[in-house]
Structure formats: structure tokens, C-alpha cells
Amino acid sequence: MGRVSLKRARALLRIRNQLARECLAELLAVVVLILITLSGSAQMVTSSGTKGNILTSYLAGALAVMVAIYTAGGVSGAHLNPAFSLTLCLLGQFPWWKFPIFVAVQTLGSFIAAGAVYALYHDAIQYYSNGTLAASGPQETASIFATYPAEYLSLSNGFLDQVMGTAVLIVGILAIVDSRNKGVPKGLEPVAVALLVFSIEVSMGSNCGCPMNPARDFGPRLFTYVAGWGAEVFRWVGGGTGLG
């Protein structure tokens, strides 16, 4: 009787619509990605570097990519990034009508994950910042969630930084998954992508933290805006430690 009931429950809960399955998989994968990535940054910032540093934060972000791809790769393809979804559309490998849907899901997942990280590190953030949620100053905490440019960075150099970092990411991923190329052992593609992300972070992260994923930056930034950091998170420039 119990087995029959369990089978009925599974049948009722089973999602048959392919688009819905892809969206839920993408949402879950992005939540996992951003949850781990931002937690690595939060641990570094709120401990003033005693329980993490820039290298551990980069490593957390890279490994988060690996886990996220394993989470949703077989269902949605684990795009995780609007820039990658756009690239696949331009290459004719992804339908344009799905693009805005995936971008919305990716941004929502990032927003939800930012809220989860804020809840997880709430006490640490309050203690570190003396109860003041600021996007600038010595005790700022907005950079836990979003990426901000270094004080010396000009607009043109920042634009070049974004284009170059994202281009290397996209080219690298396309090379890794190209069956006509020198293949990565089957099942290890997420590991190769994680190593690619890590290599970009440790080589191109000083200007503005490698924000190679628009959803990863905008979703958490929007969360900080509504959670109490205010509009400053959209206009402040200089000195951030947030990671991409």
C-alpha cells in the first residue's frame, strides 16, 4: 500500500513540461552557484581575512561553477549566465524565444541565493559592519554580493575588462564542449570549466572582480538595494572586493 501511494505521489509531482523542467533546473543550479560563490566572499569579508582570502573566494566561485553544471547540465544545459545563453542563440544552438525566459530565471536564482547568503551570514554582517549596511567605507559589505571596480579603474578600461574576461570564458567553454575539438573525458567537462573560471579569476580579477555573469551581479545587487543598502549599490565606484 505504501509503495502504491509513493508511486502516485511521484506521478502527481512529476513535471512533464520540458520548458518548466529546464527552468527549474536552471533556477536550482544558479542558486547553488551563487550561494557558494557569495558565501566564499562573505566569509572573507566578515572575518577581515582571517577565515578566508581572495584565493579561497576565487576557489569557492570556481568549484561552485562545477557543482552547478553537474546539478543542471543534463536538463537545461546549465547555462548559468545570460552571456552564455546569448552566445548559444547567436550560434543557432538555442532558440531566441527561450533567451528572455532563461535570463529571468538566472536573475531570479541569483536574487534568491543572495537572500540565502544574507540570512546565513546575517549576524556576521551586522557584527562586522556595526549594524550599518554600507556600500562604501572601511566596513562596507555590499561587495560581498556584487562586483565593484577598483578606485583607479576608468570607464573605458572597465569596459575592456568586462569584454575580455567574458570573451575568454565563452571561448573556453565552447572549446571544452566542442566534440570536434580535443575532447575532455566525458563527465569531466564541469571540472574543466571550473578550472577555466579559476584561471580567469586569478589572472583578471584585480580590476573589478571578474563579473563575467550579468545575472550573478545584477540579481544580488538588486537584493542589496531592497535589503537595506540603498541606491548607492547602483552608483558607487571604487574599492570593492566582490568576486565574479
TrEMBL record:
It catalyses: glycerol(in) = glycerol(out); urea(in) = urea(out); H2O(in) = H2O(out). Belongs to the MIP/aquaporin (TC 1.A.8) family. PANTHER family: AQUAPORIN OR AQUAGLYCEROPORIN RELATED (PTHR43829), AQUAPORIN-10 (PTHR43829:SF13). It is a multi-pass membrane protein. The chain crosses the membrane at residues 23-45, 57-78, 99-121, 159-177. GO terms for cellular component: basolateral plasma membrane. Pfam families: MIP. PROSITE patterns: MIP. This is AQP10 protein. The lineage of its organism: Eukaryota, Metazoa, Chordata, Craniata, Vertebrata. GO terms for molecular function: glycerol channel activity; urea transmembrane transporter activity; water channel activity. It is found in: Membrane. It comes from Chauna torquata. Keywords: Membrane, Transmembrane, Transmembrane helix, Transport. Its main location: membrane. InterPro entries: Aquaporin-like, Aquaporin_10, MIP, MIP/Aquaporin, MIP_CS.
